Amino acid sequence: MRVDRFLSNLPRFNRQQVRLLLVEKRVRVDGKVVSDPHTDVLEFSRVEVDEQVLQIGKPARYFMLNKPPGCVSATRDPQHPTVLDLIDEPHKDDLHIAGRLDFNTTGLMIITNDGSWSRRLTQPQTKLPKVYYVETEQEIGPEYAVTFNQGLYFAFEDLTTQPAELVLLGPKLARLSIVEGRYHQVKRMFGHFDNKVLRLHRESMGPLLLDDALKPGEYRALRTEEIHLI
Ligand code: URA
Questions:
Q1: Which part of the chain has CATH 3.30.2350.10?
Q2: Atom of ligand 1 at shortest distance to CA of 73?
Q3: Which residue of 124, 156, 160, 208 pairs with 180 in a disulfide if CB–CB is 3.0 to 4.6 A?
């Protein structure tokens, strides 16, 4: 929300007073004086007028997890363990998953309470590549890379997938880079050639790489510089 709207929503200030507070440089967001009424105020921002704290700002939290097979990318599931069961943190209800993985898919999973940050990471418009290591049942032909690069029509969603890059690592092994995360996208892309995906592992999401030190099921907080990459 814009800072001028945030302030004028409070019963104590009207719009004229808010304009003056900003001009007089009496408003601080995260410790910095702001005079631009368009400045963003998030739920994580600390907002002060003079020496008064109007919003403390809750801590933003960011984690990477090495998802093991056999767990659900959901916050709750009646039958199976979920990725959130693997996380030992307070206020887990606040957390959400940025880019789900299927039950048996492994690898990089990002968990956060910062919705605008996670949208930047996952929305197709930002075109951040999500890189998967893929093992298949049948051999992968040279025509796959051409078709994936042209895009595949998904009738259910009535859309054509964005160009994807396939690098062959062996007859039945490849690295696939896609910029969106449609439902079962990688399996459906290989399914176009009647080729079943036997193993799927996410190695990276944009600039965030799965930490080698994390064993399946382990997680760690993202470092400040990793958070700022998105
Ligand atoms: N594509 C899939 O088919 N499954 C995943 O888990 C991720 C991408």
A1: 62-224
A2: 6
A3: 124
Is 72 touching ligand 1 by the criterion CB < 6 Å?
Answer: no
- Beta-carbon contacts of 88 under 8 Å, excluding residues fewer than 6 positions away, are none
Q: Enumerate the CATH 3.10.290.10 domain ranges in the chain, comma separated.
A: 3-55
pLDDT category, 75, cuts 50, 70, 90? confident
Helices (H), the chain: 3-8, 15-23, 115-122, 143-150, 185-191, 224-227
Residue with the smallest CA separation from ligand 1 atom 2 is 184
Q: 30, 77, 85, 102: which one is catalytic? A: 102
Calpha distance 30→35 (Å, rounded): 13
pLDDT at position 81 is 92
CATH code of 3-55, in short, is 3.10.290.10
Tokens linked to 29: 């967001």
Place of tokens 């709750």: 76
Residue 76: pLDDT over 90: no
Catalytic (active site) residue 50? no
Whether the CB of 175 sits within 6 Å of ligand 1: no
Q: Which atom of ligand 1 is nearest to the CA of 189?
A: 3
pTM: 0.86
Q: How confident is the model at residue 24 (pLDDT cuts 50, 70, 90)?
A: very high
Q: Which CATH architecture has domain 62-224?
A: 2-Layer Sandwich (3.30)
